[in-house]
Amino acid sequence: MDARETAGGQSRTVSGAAGSLLHSLSQLGATLVDYGKSQLSQLGNGVEEEIQHTARTLLLSCLIVLLSTIALLMTAFTVVVAFWDTPYRLLAAILATVTLFVLAAVAGLIMRRHLQRPPTALRSVVRSALLFSAWRRLIR
Question: Which residues touch 111 (CB under 8 Å, ≥6 apart)?
Answer without folding.
Answer: 57, 60, 61, 64
